[in-house]
Amino acid sequence: MSLLDLNETQREIQSLARAYAQRELVALAGERDQESRFDRVMVTQMAELGFFGMLTPERFDGLDLDAQSYLLALEEIAVADASAAVLLSVHNSLPTQMILNFGTEAQQQRFLPPMARGELLGAFALSEPEAGSDAAALRCQAVRDGDDWLLSGTKAWVSHGSEAGVILCMARTDSPDARKGSKGISTFILTPDLPGFHLAKKENKMGLRASPTLQINLDGCRVPGDRLLGEEGQGFVYALGSLDHGRLGIAAQAIGIARAALEAAVRYAGERRQFNKPIADFQAIQFKLADMATRITAARTLLHAAAAAKQRGEKITRFSSMAKLFATETAMWVTTQAVQVFGGYGYVTDYPVERFFRDAKVTEIYEGTSEIQRIVIARETLAAAAA
Ligand code: CAA
After folding, report:
1. For ligand 1, which residues put their CB under 6 angstroms from it?
2. Residue 176 — very low, low, confident or very high, per pLDDT cuts 50/70/90?
3. Which residues does the annotation mark as catalytic?
4. Does residue 172 contact residue 145 with C-beta atoms inside 8 Å?
5. Beta-strand pair 166-172/122-125
6. How far apart are CA 221 and CA 382, in angstroms?
7. DSSP string covering 27-65, please?
8. Residue ranges of the Acyl-CoA dehydrogenase/oxidase C-terminal domain (predicted)?
């Protein structure tokens, strides 16, 4: 049930993703979460469906889907397994888009086809232990050494960092005393085989436990000159521009998590009897379900309006932040209500709603916290009013 007016391709990709997710992901999601297990089988399956190249042009072995089709597929995957959804979202939205938009023909030819085929998973390394919301304060330093660059520093919160074959890494290329701020940052295409590239701490997370999140240490990591992406000093703009797109993916993931929680709550409310009737007969439960369904529908409608604007080539910074903010806060609220509908059974691992609740939380944090989204929306709103 949705308000979206979908075309045939969009309905097809939605059905394909739903069928796959329900057939292969649902049954294993709880186990993968409990064991904190990233499953390569899932990568192979999703690669066969072309899901790692959803936004990649056909000439690079991609499916070349429109933004809405991609987001519909992501929602379906997230309903079944939010950890699988973040893998697809980061890979398709951030590294793939950055190479597509700013890479040379040689970089595109080398990296995009294996990425689209799911042979090389892409990751994104912007944050550092001391630079999260204030991303321009990052300190990882790149210095020239002949034709190469030497990168030193620690990147943090890298989703599926241990599984990635290509990592788009933001580092400073200005000198430490030049203090060029966001203009002193460049982007490098790293691969784990580079000397001085080390996987470090694996985070022990509250949710999305089947998606490994890593720190990466760069210890004089030698990066060939042809791995600089686009123009020196433009890395911050590339990263934030890509996050405009990435945040749509996180919104779709959040909507999927919320939908899974609502569907579970509806089922349970019909089965669970108290005071001689199903709890679904009580208005206290009905009102919760009504509010959950309304917020999810509103979030999806906003997201797809933003995606349609992107498809028309419009700048969507503000709408992308709105969609992410609204969808992720919806996911947290809906999953909280779902736990309440389940009562004590919502608090234990016998049912999946406690996982949905844990998985929802990070969507309000990564790819920009809710507070950062409000800053972006306020800035854009004030600028539009002043123009
Ligand atoms: N698109 C393109 N360019 C943009 C942009 C956008 N959306 N937003 C800003 N820029 C440009 C600006 O135009 C400016 O360039 P000029 O000076 O040439 O005009 C430059 O970037 C600097 O912009 P600001 O002055 O606005 O920068 P700021 O330091 O004030 O920061 C911010 C703005 C919005 C707070 C930003 O730092 C931000 O979004 N922070 C959150 C970071 C974030 O989302 N991190 C998530 C990391 S990924 C992750 O979560 C892990 C994962 O794997 C899932």
Report:
1. 90, 124, 126-127, 133, 135-136, 157-159, 182, 236-237, 240-241, 243-244, 317, 366-368, 372, 375-376
2. confident
3. 367
4. no
5. parallel
6. 42
7. HHHHHHHHTT---HHHHHHHHHTTGGGTTS-GGGT----
8. 233-380
**Measured distance CA(315)–CA(299) in Å, rounded:** 19
Residue 117 token pair: 């085929």
Residue 1 has pLDDT above 80, yes or no: no
Tell which residue, 330, 359, 133, has the closest CA to residue 251. 330
Q: Determine the atom of ligand 1 nearest the C-alpha atom of 182.
A: 22
- Residue 150: which H helix or E strand, with range? strand 148-159
Q: How many Cα atoms occupy the beta-carbon half-sphere of 312 within 13 Å?
A: 9
Distance CA 6, CA 187 (A): 36
What pLDDT is stored for residue 293 in this prediction?
A: 98
- 192 to 146, 155, 216, 357: CA distances (angstroms): 21, 13, 10, 33
Distance CA 233, CA 346 (A): 49
197: helix, strand or coil: strand
Structure tokens at 293: 């369904």
ipTM: 0.97
90 CB burial (10 A radius; 0-12, 13-18, 19+): buried
Determine the distance separating the centroid of ligand 1 and the alpha carbon of 33, expressed in angstroms.
Answer: 32
Using the structure block, give the residue that is written with the tokens 């973040």.
Answer: 86
Between CA 211 and CA 162 the distance in angstroms is 10
* Residue type at 170 in one-letter notation: M
Confidence of residue 139 (pLDDT cuts 50, 70, 90): very high
Distance 83 CA to ligand 1 centre (A): 25
The residue type found at 330 is: T
- pLDDT of 180 reads 85
The pair of three-digit structure tokens given for residue 251, joined into one six-digit string: 């919104």
Cα-flanking dihedrals φ and ψ of residue 145, to 5°? -140, 95
Give the global pTM.
Answer: 0.97
Region 197-216: mean pLDDT is 98
